[in-house]
Amino acid sequence: MIKIAVDLMGGDDAPQAVLDGIELFLKAFNDVEIQGYGLPEYNTIKHDNFKFIACSEQITMDDEPVRSVRRKKDASMVRAAEAVKLKTADACVSAGNTGALMSAGLFIVGRIKGIERPALAMTMPTIDNKGFMLLDMGANADAKPEHLVQYAKMANIYAKANRKIANPTIGLANIGTEDKKGNTLTKETFALLKAENTINFIGNVEPKTLLNSTADIVVTDGFTGNIILKTLEGTANNIFKMLKQTLTSSTKNKLATAIIKNDLAKLKGKMDYSEYGGAVLFGVNGLVIKAHGSSDKVAIYNALRQARIAVEEDVVSTLTKEVGTDE
């Protein structure tokens, strides 16, 4: 049976949203044991496939990532990561402090040998509902060309296994599509990716085309990737705010809104990247998934479903064999 360790205390609406998401997941799947790590008073789920592990501490969104992981040994997030390290769980999922979870992945779970820099990857929405994977989203602000090549290789393996894309297209985020565009990092990375015969590299892609399914995978450094992520997220949120203001500005508009209410809900759902699951920390020797901090029960459900598929496909072993080394 697949075993997934869950940090019950992580997230803006934790623990209730996390508990609700687990219950939703357990109704859909009977081949997974969920190990819930949290404060004693939140042992509320009664299910044969749920195991509660009491912890005395939690890591908050305001905690300093590295210090909190090292000092709060009995925190729910730390204990969940340790379960992956000790192989008592196949994966861990948390909607908590992103920096702390990355630190837990690095210092507790540990890197795959040969992977120089882990990367945080998430599947983002596109207009045609296919989605594209963006990495690195912020695990490393600075990166070398060879790091981005490793990102591309890891994402390629994951997209084949988890998203069932036979030959994923891979693009390099840049300020233009021409081969010679960009700074030193993108120019050197472009040359290395073009020479790599194990991936389907299609060249540079501009951020303005990302939602048009320009590529299945888009690689960049963590600084740029985080800016792309937050720009897309902020733009989508503000468009819907402006749309709401317009649709509620008059009686006529309110009546029209009532007619198209369901269509608007579908439109908003298309732009919700939590529908694709959480962000995966590639390069660590275990499966670590970061759900969005504002995750509701559906987002938690999707992150758990994503973890289940990745465990079934044995993604970490494949990454270790094909990208890692014995050094």
Secondary-structure topology with pairs:
Layout (H helix, E strand, L loop, with lengths): L1 E6 L8 H13 L3 E7 L11 E5 L10 H7 L4 H10 L5 E4 L3 H12 L9 E6 L7 E4 L9 H18 L6 E5 L10 H12 L4 E6 L11 E3 L2 H26 L3 H9 L1 H10 L8 E4 L4 E4 L6 H16 L2 H8 L5
Parallel strand pairs: 1-2, 1-4, 2-3, 4-11, 6-9, 7-8, 7-9
Antiparallel strand pairs: 5-6, 5-10, 10-11
Helix pairs in contact: 1-10, 2-4, 3-4, 5-6, 5-11
Subunit structure: Homodimer. Probably interacts with PlsY.
Keywords: Acyltransferase, Cytoplasm, Lipid biosynthesis, Lipid metabolism, Phospholipid biosynthesis, Phospholipid metabolism, Transferase
GO cellular component, one term: cytoplasm
Structural write-up:
By secondary structure, the chain is α/β, with parallel strands linked by helices. The chain has two domains: 1-115 and 283-327, Isopropylmalate Dehydrogenase (3-Layer(aba) Sandwich); 121-273, Isopropylmalate Dehydrogenase, CATH 3.40.718.10. The protein is 43% helix and 17% strand. The protein has helices spanning 16-28, 65-71, 76-85, 98-109, 145-162, 184-195, 222-247, 251-259, 261-270, 297-312, 315-322; strands at residues 2-7, 32-38, 50-54, 91-94, 119-124, 132-135, 169-173, 200-205, 217-219, 279-282, 287-290. An eleven-stranded mixed beta sheet has the order 3-2-1-4-11-10-5-6-9-7-8, with helices on both faces. The mean pLDDT is 90.
